[in-house]
Amino acid sequence: MNRYVALLGFIVVVFGGGLLIGYLTLPGEWYAGLAKPFFNPPNWIFGPVWSVLYVLIALAGWRVWSSDPHGAAMRLWVAQLVLNFLWSPTFFGLQQMGLALLVILALLAAILGFMATAAKSDRVAAWLFAPYVAWVAFATLLNAALWWLN
Protein backbone atom coordinates (compact mmCIF):
# COMPACT_ATOMS: atom_id res chain seq x y z
CA MET A 1 0.00 0.00 0.00
CA ASN A 2 2.85 2.45 0.79
CA ARG A 3 4.14 2.07 -2.79
CA TYR A 4 0.85 3.41 -4.15
CA VAL A 5 0.81 6.29 -1.70
CA ALA A 6 4.29 7.15 -2.96
CA LEU A 7 3.05 6.95 -6.56
CA LEU A 8 0.23 9.32 -5.71
CA GLY A 9 2.79 11.65 -4.13
CA PHE A 10 4.88 11.62 -7.32
CA ILE A 11 1.80 12.40 -9.42
CA VAL A 12 0.75 15.22 -7.13
CA VAL A 13 4.21 16.81 -7.11
CA VAL A 14 4.82 16.52 -10.86
CA PHE A 15 1.31 17.16 -12.17
CA GLY A 16 0.46 19.70 -9.47
CA GLY A 17 3.76 21.52 -9.88
CA GLY A 18 3.34 21.64 -13.64
CA LEU A 19 -0.22 22.95 -13.36
CA LEU A 20 0.75 25.59 -10.81
CA ILE A 21 3.70 26.84 -12.84
CA GLY A 22 1.59 26.84 -15.99
CA TYR A 23 -1.09 28.87 -14.25
CA LEU A 24 1.41 31.35 -12.80
CA THR A 25 3.19 31.84 -16.14
CA LEU A 26 0.37 31.95 -18.69
CA PRO A 27 1.65 32.99 -22.13
CA GLY A 28 -0.44 36.18 -22.35
CA GLU A 29 -0.23 39.06 -24.78
CA TRP A 30 3.56 39.06 -25.04
CA TYR A 31 3.57 35.52 -26.46
CA ALA A 32 0.54 36.18 -28.67
CA GLY A 33 2.41 39.06 -30.29
CA LEU A 34 5.51 37.04 -31.20
CA ALA A 35 6.29 36.00 -34.76
CA LYS A 36 5.78 32.23 -34.84
CA PRO A 37 7.31 29.55 -37.06
CA PHE A 38 5.06 27.66 -39.46
CA PHE A 39 5.24 24.55 -37.26
CA ASN A 40 4.00 26.29 -34.10
CA PRO A 41 1.19 24.07 -32.76
CA PRO A 42 -2.16 25.53 -31.67
CA ASN A 43 -2.25 26.66 -28.04
CA TRP A 44 -4.91 24.11 -27.06
CA ILE A 45 -2.50 21.20 -27.66
CA PHE A 46 -0.08 22.06 -24.86
CA GLY A 47 -2.42 21.28 -21.94
CA PRO A 48 -3.35 17.74 -23.02
CA VAL A 49 0.21 16.88 -24.09
CA TRP A 50 1.75 18.07 -20.83
CA SER A 51 -0.94 16.33 -18.79
CA VAL A 52 -0.01 12.96 -20.31
CA LEU A 53 3.71 13.69 -20.09
CA TYR A 54 3.52 14.69 -16.42
CA VAL A 55 1.84 11.38 -15.55
CA LEU A 56 4.58 9.48 -17.44
CA ILE A 57 7.30 11.55 -15.75
CA ALA A 58 5.79 10.82 -12.33
CA LEU A 59 5.46 7.11 -13.07
CA ALA A 60 9.08 6.87 -14.26
CA GLY A 61 10.32 8.74 -11.19
CA TRP A 62 8.31 6.54 -8.88
CA ARG A 63 9.66 3.37 -10.49
CA VAL A 64 13.27 4.52 -10.14
CA TRP A 65 12.70 5.81 -6.60
CA SER A 66 11.15 2.46 -5.63
CA SER A 67 14.31 0.58 -6.55
CA ASP A 68 17.11 3.10 -5.89
CA PRO A 69 15.95 6.35 -4.24
CA HIS A 70 19.45 7.84 -3.99
CA GLY A 71 20.97 6.59 -7.23
CA ALA A 72 22.18 8.47 -10.29
CA ALA A 73 18.93 7.92 -12.20
CA MET A 74 16.92 9.48 -9.38
CA ARG A 75 19.27 12.48 -9.22
CA LEU A 76 18.85 12.97 -12.97
CA TRP A 77 15.09 12.64 -12.60
CA VAL A 78 15.09 15.43 -10.00
CA ALA A 79 17.37 17.57 -12.19
CA GLN A 80 15.08 17.24 -15.19
CA LEU A 81 12.06 18.15 -13.09
CA VAL A 82 13.76 21.28 -11.74
CA LEU A 83 14.75 22.31 -15.27
CA ASN A 84 11.26 21.52 -16.55
CA PHE A 85 9.71 23.72 -13.87
CA LEU A 86 12.28 26.46 -14.56
CA TRP A 87 11.58 26.78 -18.28
CA SER A 88 8.13 28.44 -18.18
CA PRO A 89 9.10 31.15 -15.69
CA THR A 90 12.20 31.86 -17.78
CA PHE A 91 10.41 31.95 -21.12
CA PHE A 92 7.01 33.40 -20.24
CA GLY A 93 7.69 35.11 -16.92
CA LEU A 94 11.04 36.75 -17.65
CA GLN A 95 10.42 36.76 -21.43
CA GLN A 96 14.00 35.61 -21.94
CA MET A 97 13.85 33.30 -24.96
CA GLY A 98 17.63 32.93 -25.24
CA LEU A 99 18.04 31.98 -21.58
CA ALA A 100 15.03 29.66 -21.89
CA LEU A 101 16.78 27.98 -24.81
CA LEU A 102 19.75 27.23 -22.56
CA VAL A 103 17.39 25.85 -19.90
CA ILE A 104 15.59 23.59 -22.37
CA LEU A 105 18.89 22.33 -23.83
CA ALA A 106 19.97 21.39 -20.30
CA LEU A 107 16.55 19.78 -19.78
CA LEU A 108 16.98 17.74 -22.94
CA ALA A 109 20.41 16.58 -21.76
CA ALA A 110 19.01 15.64 -18.32
CA ILE A 111 16.17 13.66 -19.91
CA LEU A 112 18.58 11.75 -22.15
CA GLY A 113 20.89 11.19 -19.18
CA PHE A 114 17.99 9.85 -17.13
CA MET A 115 16.94 7.51 -19.93
CA ALA A 116 20.46 6.14 -20.38
CA THR A 117 21.01 5.70 -16.65
CA ALA A 118 17.57 4.29 -15.85
CA ALA A 119 17.77 1.80 -18.74
CA LYS A 120 20.49 -0.08 -16.87
CA SER A 121 18.13 -1.03 -14.05
CA ASP A 122 14.57 -0.25 -15.21
CA ARG A 123 13.95 -0.27 -18.95
CA VAL A 124 10.27 0.57 -18.44
CA ALA A 125 11.15 3.77 -16.56
CA ALA A 126 13.55 4.75 -19.34
CA TRP A 127 10.97 4.10 -22.07
CA LEU A 128 8.32 6.06 -20.17
CA PHE A 129 10.47 9.09 -21.03
CA ALA A 130 10.39 8.41 -24.80
CA PRO A 131 7.36 10.64 -25.52
CA TYR A 132 8.83 13.27 -23.18
CA VAL A 133 12.18 13.41 -24.97
CA ALA A 134 10.38 13.64 -28.32
CA TRP A 135 8.20 16.52 -27.12
CA VAL A 136 11.07 18.39 -25.47
CA ALA A 137 13.20 17.98 -28.61
CA PHE A 138 10.34 19.55 -30.58
CA ALA A 139 9.91 22.26 -27.93
CA THR A 140 13.64 22.99 -28.14
CA LEU A 141 13.31 23.54 -31.89
CA LEU A 142 10.26 25.72 -31.29
CA ASN A 143 12.06 27.77 -28.60
CA ALA A 144 15.04 28.26 -30.93
CA ALA A 145 12.78 29.32 -33.81
CA LEU A 146 10.89 31.81 -31.63
CA TRP A 147 14.17 33.25 -30.37
CA TRP A 148 15.52 33.53 -33.94
CA LEU A 149 12.33 35.13 -35.31
CA ASN A 150 11.97 37.65 -32.51
UniProtKB/TrEMBL annotation:
Q: Name one Pfam family in it.
A: TspO_MBR
Give the source's domain of life in one word.
Bacteria
Subcellular location(s) per record: Membrane
Statement: the UniProt record of this protein carries the keyword Transmembrane? yes
Q: Which UniProt keywords apply?
A: Membrane, Transmembrane, Transmembrane helix
Q: Where are the transmembrane segments?
A: 5-24, 44-65, 72-92, 98-119, 126-149
Q: Kindly report the protein's main subcellular placement as a broad class.
A: membrane
A single cellular component GO annotation: membrane
Q: Does the keyword Cytoplasm apply?
A: no
In what way does this protein cross or attach to the membrane?
A: Multi-pass membrane protein
Under InterPro entries, the record lists: TspO/MBR-related_sf, TspO_MBR
- GO BP annotations, alphabetical order: tetrapyrrole metabolic process
Q: Which family does it belong to?
A: Belongs to the TspO/BZRP family.
Q: Tell me what this protein is called.
A: CrtK/TspO family sensor protein
Q: Which organism is it from?
A: Aminobacter aminovorans
What does UniProt list as this organism's lineage? Bacteria, Pseudomonadati, Pseudomonadota, Alphaproteobacteria, Hyphomicrobiales
